TrEMBL record:
This is Uncharacterized protein. InterPro entries: LRR_dom_sf. It comes from the Eukaryota.
Length: 424
């Protein structure tokens, strides 16, 4: 074990003094206010690795005004301590906070204290909470770049009342706005409001933005269609139709046009996750010029495998070598040698289906960048092909590994610096 650095020794000794009753009582000033923000952040993070947490140990650290990163898990403190904690931060310690993550669903009185805290965090850039938070309390956080509210209580519409929406339009730096717990297309009008109010927005979380783009396109002049800067999209086109076969068929036929409109509205997309309801939409995806990460679910194309495979390979050829992450879901008998021959620079490949080798594999290709390989099922030839051509594989996951034998295990162990290997 390497010797501890002087910094580690000082950090541990400082924590010991923090937990020693009465040690700092004679100090007229808060000694932690003399430290840099980085050291205070480190002390707070290091304290939270300890087995037991007591608010009294953290009072000086939280009130020094230098803490930037604040996070809290439930139930890390008692209700009474949470009350004191928020009061302490709100009154003295929140002026430097830039990051808040709270994995707890607070009660109403605790929630109001959280909202008071938000009103006094002018430097806040990143907010992640698991409780309802009236977005209007963020109006003073003009540096906010990311808001994630993981709450399932249904009050997300509060943001879209005129008063709230107009107030929050001052958050011009917002890039991630993930408050949409309803992941399907029924929230499209709310997405439109968010897109118009926040011009730098790059992500709406995992909520489907395709229907919003389709409506924007239909209600715009063809020669003056607006464009937005979303970089990450999830397109599922999952409008509830109560299992009506006729409506489902109609929606599926509309799908290619919806995707075409979405690509015109979001031309800068870098990451796309899409459930393909009609294989013709794959032609439109060729127009995404900046795509580096692509996840495709072929659940609704199982009856047209050969046609879908042909269109997939054509799409991948059009995207070009810039693609780094490829995820294929509900797609079987995928010729991995053809995919990797065209994309030897893939860093991440995930296949929820069966991998096969198609044709001859005499030519040797080296996949220098492949770090993660996740495949549900593959035969020995496919596995050998991928392992013997991968130079730096770190994570390997096989859902069905009946093809494994001692020789393949030797290839896995000796051929790659694996940090994680899992098979079933």
């Amino acid at each position: 074990m390497p010797p501890k650095s002087l910094y580690d020794i000082c950090r541990r000794r400082t924590l010991e003094l923090m937990t020693e009753d009465g040690y700092w009582d004679e100090c007229p000033e808060n000694r932690f206010s003399e430290l840099t923000c980085g050291v205070v952040n480190d002390l707070f993070a290091f304290y939270r690795t300890m087995e037991y947490h007591y608010l009294r140990d953290l009072e000086l650290l939280l009130s020094c005004g230098k803490l930037q990163r604040f996070y809290l898990r439930y139930p890390e403190f008692s209700e009474e301590e949470c009350d004191q904690l928020f009061q302490l931060l709100t009154e003295q310690g929140c002026r430097s906070i830039t990051f808040v993550k709270l994995s707890a669903n607070f009660k109403n009185d605790e929630n109001s204290r959280l909202e008071k805290l938000m009103l006094k965090c002018p430097l806040l850039k990143n907010l992640q909470v698991s409780t309802f938070l009236n977005p209007i309390v963020l109006r003073n956080c003009k540096r906010l770049k990311s808001v994630v509210i993981n709450y399932t209580g249904g009050e997300e519409s509060t943001y879209f009342r005129n008063e709230s929406a107009n107030t929050l339009s001052v958050l011009i730096n917002l890039q991630v706005f993930d408050i949409f717990r309803n992941k399907n297309c029924s929230s499209y009008f709310q997405h439109i409001v968010a897109l118009k109010n926040h011009p730098r927005l790059m992500s709406l979380g995992q909520s489907d933005s395709s229907w919003a783009a389709h409506h924007i396109g239909n209600n715009s002049n063809r020669d003056a269609r607006p464009q937005y800067g979303l970089r990450k999209c999830f397109w599922e086109f999952s409008i509830a139709v109560e299992d009506n076969p006729e409506q489902i068929a109609a929606y599926n036929l509309m799908f290619p046009e919806v995707i075409r409109s979405s690509i015109l509205i979001f031309p800068l997309m870098v990451e796309l996750h899409i459930v393909v309801r009609h294989e013709k939409c794959l032609e439109h995806l060729k127009n995404l010029k900046h795509l580096r990460s692509l996840g495709i679910n072929f659940e609704f194309c199982s009856n047209h495998y050969s046609s879908a495979l042909s269109k997939l390979l054509s799409l991948l050829s059009a995207i070009g070598p810039k693609l780094r992450i490829l995820e294929l879901l509900q797609f079987h008998n995928v010729p991995v040698n053809i995919i990797f021959r065209r994309y030897p620079d893939l860093e991440f490949f995930q296949l929820y289906g069966a991998a096969i080798i198609c044709g001859s594999v005499k030519t040797v290709y080296k996949f220098k960048n492949l770090k993660t390989l996740f495949v549900v099922r593959m035969d020995a030839m496919s596995l050998q092909y991928l392992l013997r051509n991968s130079m730096d594989l770190r994570i390997l996951y096989l859902e069905e590994a009946s093809c494994l034998n001692d020789m393949l295990m030797a290839d896995i162990i000796h051929g790659n610096p694996l940090a994680f290997f899992l098979s079933r």
